[in-house]
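Morning!

This is the sequence you dropped in the shared folder:
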Amino acid sequence: QAVRRTDIELGRALHAKDGSHASPKGSYLIAATFLHGLAKTDAATLHPPPGLTEQETTTIDNAITQTLSLN
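The structure's back. Tokens below.
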């Protein structure tokens, strides 16, 4: 939700065309969330998948930080 509120197109791109599975961008979001939440490590240590722009990476990283800080 946090990504979609910031960037609707990126939010749509988080799912594969089948609508059920994560795309490479969605997989990055999942991996970065686990890394940040479990290991308290910044997502910047991950290598984003090809096709993920710097702006999209920043949007995802900000959404993760914002979401996990609420818990």
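Headline: The chain has four helices and no strands.

More detail when I'm at my desk.
O.
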